[in-house]
Amino acid sequence: MNHKISRRKAVSTAAAVGAAVGVGVVAGAAGFFIGSSAPREQKTVTLTNQATLTQTQTVTASKLPGEIKIGVLLPLSGDIGPIGSKMLNGAKLAAKLLNNWGGIAGSTVSIAAEDTVGEPTKALDAVKKLVEVDGVQVIAGPATSVEFLTIAEYLKSRNVPAISMSATAAAISEIGGDYIFRVVPSDAEQTRALADLITSKGVNRLATFVVSNDYGIGIETGLKKHLGNKIVLSIRYDPTKGDYREELNRVKQANVDAVLWAMWVDSGIVVFKQAYDLGLTNILSFGGEGMSDKAFFADAKAAEYLLLTKMTGTKPAPPAESLSSKKFVEAYRKEFGEDPGLFADTTYDSTMVSALAVALAGEYKGAKIASMIKTAAYHYIGPSGQKMMNASGDAEQASYEIWRIVKDGEYGFKKIGSWDSVTGINLTS
Amino acid sequence: MIFDASLIQTLLNGVITGSIYFMVSIGLTLQYQLMKFPNLTHAELFTIGAFITYIFADIVGLGYWFSLPIGAVLTGGVAALIYLIVFKQLIKRGASLSHLIIAAAGMGILLRYALWEAAGRRSYFYSEFFTPYDIGSIRLSVLWIAIIIVAALTTLMLFLLFTKTMLGKAVRGLSSNPLLARVSGIDADKMTILVWFLSGVLAGLAGSLRAADTRLTPELGVEVLIPMFAVTVLGGIGSVSGAFMGAYILGLAESFGVVPLSSLGFPTEYKALTAFAALVITILILPTGLSSLLSKERTRRD
Questions:
Q1: Does B215 touch chain A if contact means CB atoms closer than 8 Å?
Q2: Is the alpha carbon torsion for A61, A67, A71, A72 positive or negative?
Q3: A245 contacts B16? CB cut-off 8 A
Q4: How far, in Å, CA of A193 to CA of A178, rounded?
Q5: How far apart are CA B178 and CA B186, in angstroms?
Q6: What is the pLDDT of residues B131-140, one digit of tens each?
Q7: Is the pLDDT of residue A267 over 60?
Q8: pLDDT grade for B5, boundaries at 50, 70 and 90
Q9: Which of B16, B143, B215 sits opposite A266 (nearest CB)?
Q10: Between A and B, how many CB-CB pairs are < 8 A?
């Protein structure tokens, strides 16, 4: 304990000295964070950093290569290729802006992109090519959770950090924090929002009715963590079975106030039809983002059921407009002549955080860069918001929209409030 | 306490599922009786029937109840055509049992992919609204009542057909001793076409009812393929009364299987497992199926 305190003291002293020398408050803060996350090298790193900021670039430039490669793993062909190709623009824009601003301590930033086709095995080939052939030491990507879970072990074995821009599976948190990071929140956050929503509606007895796969089980287990014994019955159903009358009868007999549904459209419609027929109608319905899909209205009875049980739920909200997001859209339009597509902002952010981590590490070595990623993210505010990470390497900031089914001529969804990790739930109607 | 309302509903749910299984399995059983090969194409007729009904009900606009018999009869026609075009020719050319089984499997895949191509991999829904009613603490919809009634009428009709009419006697004669039947002047070809037609009608009925209860997709038949064969085996392959018992045992086992599964916190997708456990146990105890319990059919089999 004493040892720790004295070390902290030393750090803050160093920071104070930095400020006194006239480097400025920013340098002091950066020195503090670098010092606290890598205490053994505190002295030298602090010095190098101050040296950089006081324009003696020769000290750091000697340790960084002339070209700093940021690896990018995205699906550039295949089913989700069209989305991935546009996401790549976000990474390109980040590199271009960094270079316009003078690069990283004089080194230029370049993008080394590899196509993962959105498939785990191809992603593994792609990451090996980046690391073994191109010598990449930090990666923005991959885009999907399965790909990330597949290549994680390899990344760890080669000490190369990766920051995903769109993988949201809760399971990634279990392996994240040292080499595995993401600039998006885990799906587990959405269950926190859902739990708050369900609690705010005064529900005391809840049943969960979920499709038996990662999506459904993820929501069920996430909710159990937050709602505990308010969940009196959990049904996991087989989506290929096509007949759920008895499962629904169990829910009816359990006498619950509300049901949380997490299903796919096809089997979901059957469930709602049969729930209507069974008379499971004196309950409230809740759901996650998968449930705010107009495809559920394909059957009149299913649609009527959702309206009758006042289906309410959460879905990820677009980031609030900020100076950063405004500038990003402007720059993107100027560069590519169109509006940024899905996840272009988070791809930009993961590329930026990667580059900042390289700058903070002062060396192009995977292990060192990895140790700087949380620090870089802590200070970074990008177009997709504040990117501060938790111990598992997940973005902490999450915001969700709260929606409810409405019928105004035809069935639709209406925003009735919001939830975010800072202020919690806020219902407007 | 044990006999509470929730279990009556559970029983009812099992009967509805069992009725669908019965109607689709009985065609397979009849075909087996006559031709001694399991027709894997049969499950696709379940889907085809539902689509034909959909075309008449929602595209032509005749409504569900009018279209149901049209769909059933036309599916019967499709079944008879499949026999005439494919299986009759194969048998004529001396195809063995394994040839026929593989041809049937191939035909089934062909039909399923043709449906995928025509309808796309999406779900369709009949626009008919089936009103649900509360009867005491039991919930019944018009459709569920229809499923149970149609299955009951099917049973009655088959019973009368096989015991009271010359036609039924001819089919029975043909299945138990083809040579003797032919000698006594029974037109084997006509009888086989008739049995395929009848199987198709029942499959089309069952498929249209199931699709109305759930959804209509080109995969509708795949969902019942395994239960259908299970029922046929459970009943004792080729036995009508055995298939009847098998269908309702499987339906009830699935339905009642959900009760302990959900109260013990297991995923209810294992309900298929409880149903098949019932199947395996039956086969272990009665290797020739439930029909061996019925003495009359046992002597015939021996």
A1: yes
A2: positive
A3: yes
A4: 27
A5: 9
A6: 888 888 888 8
A7: yes
A8: low
A9: B215
A10: 98
Average pLDDT score over residue span B33-57: 92
Indicate the helix (H) or strand (E) that contains B140: strand B138-141
Centroid of chain to Cα B77: 17
Residue of A nearest to B261 (CA): A235
Could you give the 3-state DSSP secondary structure of residue B93? Answer: coil
A159 Cβ partners below 8 Å, 6+ apart?
Answer: A179, A365, A366, A367, A370
Instruction: Give A275 to chain B, closest Cα distance, Å.
Output: 11
Pairs from A58-67 (Cβ < 8 Å, separation ≥ 24): A60/A105, A60/A362, A61/A105, A61/A106, A61/A107, A63/A362, A63/A363, A63/A364, A64/A104, A64/A105, A64/A106, A64/A107, A64/A358, A64/A362, A64/A363, A64/A364, A65/A107, A65/A364, A66/A107, A66/A108, A67/A107, A67/A108, A67/A109, A67/A110
Decide if pLDDT at A57 tops 80: no
B220, A242: Cβ pair inside 8 Å?
yes
- Give the chain B residue nearest A270 (alpha carbons): B214
Chain-chain contact of B223 with A241 (C-beta, under 8 angstroms):
yes
Q: Which of A231, A206, A187 lies closest to A286, judged by CA? A: A206
| pTM across the whole model | 0.73
Selected residues 216-245 of chain B with any CB under 8 Å from a CB in chain A: 217, 219-220, 222-223
* Whole-number Å distance between alpha carbons of A225 and A229: 9
Q: 3-state DSSP call for residue A398?
A: coil
CATH 3.40.190.10 matches A68-186+320-386: no
Token pair of A71, please? 């690896």
Whether this model's ipTM surpasses 0.85 comes out as no
State residue A13's pLDDT score. Answer: 45
Which chain A residues are Cβ-neighbours of B272 within 8 angstroms?
238, 241
Closest-CA distance, B123 to chain A, in angstroms, reads 7
- Whether A250 sits inside 8 A of B258 (CB atoms) is yes
Q: Which amino acid is at A286?
A: F
Quote the pLDDT of residue B292.
Answer: 66
Q: Return mean pLDDT, chain A.
A: 86
**Is there a contact between A242 and B214 if contact means CB atoms under 8 Å apart?**
yes
Counts for chain B of helices (H) and strands (E), in that order: 13, 2
Check residue A19 and give its pLDDT. 43
Contact of B144 with chain A, judged by CB distance below 8 Å, is answered with yes
Please say whether the beta carbons of B223 and A242 come within 8 A. Answer: yes
Query: CA-to-CA distance for B181 and A418, rounded, in angstroms?
Result: 77
How much is the pLDDT for A111? 97
DSSP string over A184-251: S--HHHHHHHHHHHHHHTT--SEEEEEESSHHHHHHHHHHHHHHGGGEEEEEEE-TTT---HHHHHHH
> Cα B144 to chain center, whole Å?
17
Residues 6 or more apart in contact with residue B152 via CB below 8 angstroms: none
Sign of the dihedral through C-alpha A88, A89, A91, A96: positive
CB A313 within 8 Å of CB A287 = yes
Predicted confidence at residue B294, as pLDDT, reads 58
**What's the gap in Å between the CA of A320 and the closest CA on chain B?**
36
**Residue whose entry in the numeric block shows the structure tokens 């002062």:** A362
Q: Look at A246 and B223 and tell me if their CB atoms are within 8 Å.
A: no
A72 forms bridges with which residues in the sheet? A113, A140
Classified by CATH at the fold level, domain A188-317+399-427 comes out as Rossmann fold (3.40.50)
Question: Which backbone phi and psi does B200 adopt, to 5 degrees?
Answer: -65, -40
